[in-house]
Amino acid sequence: MKSGLHKVLHPIAGRSMLLHLMASVGTLGPERQVVVVGAGREQVEKAVAGTGAVIAVQEQQLGTGHAVAQAHDALAGFAGDVLILYGDVPLVRPETMRAMLDRLNRGDEPRAVVLGFRPEDAAAYGRIVADGQGIIDRMVEYKDANDAERAVTLCNSGLMAVRSTDLFVLLDRIGNDNAAGEYYLPDIVMLPGGQSAVIETEAWEVAGVNSRIELAGVEAMWQARRRVDAMRDGVTLIAPDTVFFSHDTVLGRDVVVEPHVVFGPGVTVAEDVTIHAFSHLEGASVERGAAIGPYARLRPGAEIGERAKVGNFVEIKKARMEEGAKANHLSYIGDASVGAGANIGAGTITCNYDGFLKYRTEIGAGAFIGSNSALVAPASIGAGAIVAAGSVVTKPVEADALCLVRPEQVAKPGWAATFRARMKAKKAAAKG
Description:
This protein is an alpha/beta fold.
């Protein structure tokens, strides 16, 4: 990845690949989760803190079988089924994991279940040779395969399900007599004294990430599937390929999303909301019937009430806009509360930061804030009050009051013409 960030911590849809995978595993209710890591242990430990996962360290990189063996102590006393997954293969669905476990516990009880797939280009993947019932005859790494084996289209994803009572016994029996001198996890399948099975899934589900290019490819696959899910759930996407979701985006029915909208983490949108083009939402909630954008930005802590309107080039941060409130254009509302039905005129800003601390602005229900006003926090505008355009408000405004903060307008007839004549004369003298 050519990065200071551990490979498995690079994000897909705003969440690291590793946490994507662990979230899917979590839906199965695992008794234990063990994360095997080599270099970059500190980064991974920090990322999984609070998940209940145990870290096991592979000090030397001696192959996939060796890596799995490092989980031995963490699984001591565990008598269940083990799923072996890869942190850089983040899109595996819980349904597929469950299918692997179900096959492991079917009547013939294979010693292991391998997840296979058939990519368009088998490239250098390990191959699986199996019969019509999915019983594996042999598995071979590409670098060790002959021409006939390389012609096989069923490939090994590396993902596997094994009973804990068998796993480490089998790992103790494999060697490293191969082209790479490594202990291959797939070798446990070919050990004498038992049989293993393969089940298949689609190639996209086991796509791995080893470069920024592959990371972008997996992101694209995730986004494409999420868009389809959204539309199936009753969301209208005008130009689906231009909309980007976060892993936790929640959209209600009859939401309309126009082109070029980005959802960052932590966004919840209720029913009948329209998100107009080129808007960016993160850490925000939008209630029923509201309208956002175009070109709006909702930052973390933004709460938009029912039928409220956040228009073009309006930024909302850590602020609540109550039902029917409107900020139609060119405004910044931060650390504030805007009452029901209030109207925020173009160019209004809440001056919430003095360079050291943040302060709040409270705007009452039905208040009218005239264009190009600056509300210097801490500020309080009473319900129904009117702040005249161009005002700089530094004191509380009572309910239903008019607040007018402007210097007296002074006009000097003929001054501009006199000024221009004087300046032209001065310029001419300078040239002479």
